[in-house]
Amino acid sequence: MGILLRKLDRIQTWDLDHRAPFPWLRAGEFQADPLGDLNTSGNAISVYEIDENEENLTQVAGALSVSRGRYDRFDYVLFPESVVSELGLRLVNTLGQTADAQVNQCHRDISEISSHRLVELVERIFRNQKRFGSVAERDIIKSIIDGLNDKRIKYASIRKSLERLQERANKLGLQIPPEST
């Protein structure tokens, strides 16, 4: 079975160690805020398949960072594909919409999600997650630079945020390669 990645915007709300400020939570419950990280569109959630050895994790994080125009730390959760099948949800291969054509091949939609199954999905991710993690800003930008050098990422996809990307790269001592014609 594969490993799936979901981008998180509020990783701190997923932290089970922060139960203390919420004494009203019952045993086995979690706060509702993590549901916001699993926003659906057409009753589906977008995820990316990660290699067993996680070699493509940073590349996926870089491509998703380009898509959102943010190049800071990238938070995520990794969980086994079995979480999806055990709930009777469908995992559908769909082409991603990132700037990296190679990453787009790793895109999957978890589909046929009802409100009840969405809550169950969050519960299962909590219980069965491989890990919650972050990819550092330096690694994000290096991945984007590699994508530009390898021509997997087109300059057109970063043009709107190129100035911000260059500024962040400069602060880290990294150089965005010039666009070749």
Write up what this structure looks like.
The protein has 181 residues and is of the alpha+beta class. The chain has one domain (3-171). Helices cover 34% and strands 18% of the residues. It has seven helices and six strands. It has helices spanning 57-68, 82-86, 101-104, 115-128, 137-149, 155-158, 162-171, and strands spanning 3-8, 45-50, 74-80, 90-93, 107-111, 131-135. Strands 4-5-2-1-3-6 form a six-stranded antiparallel beta sheet. Helix 1 (57-68) crosses helix 5. The mean pLDDT is 88.
Described by the principal axes of the CA atoms, the overall outline is globular
What share of residues is helical?
Answer: 25-40%
Which H/E pattern describes the elements?
A: EEHEHEHEHEHHH
Strands, total number:
6
Strand fraction equals 15-25%
The radius of gyration is 17 Å
Number of structurally distinct domains: 1
Low-confidence stretches: none
Task: Strand order, main sheet: write it out.
Answer: 4-5-2-1-3-6
Query: How many helices?
Result: 7
Cα separation of the termini: 43 Å
Describe what is shown at a glance.
The protein is an alpha+beta fold. It has one domain.
Protein traits:
about 180 residues, about 35% helix, alpha+beta
List the helices and strands and how they pair.
Blueprint: E1 3-8, E2 45-50, H1 57-68, E3 74-80, H2 82-86, E4 90-93, H3 101-104, E5 107-111, H4 115-128, E6 131-135, H5 137-149, H6 155-158, H7 162-171
Antiparallel strand pairs: 1-2, 1-3, 2-5, 3-6, 4-5
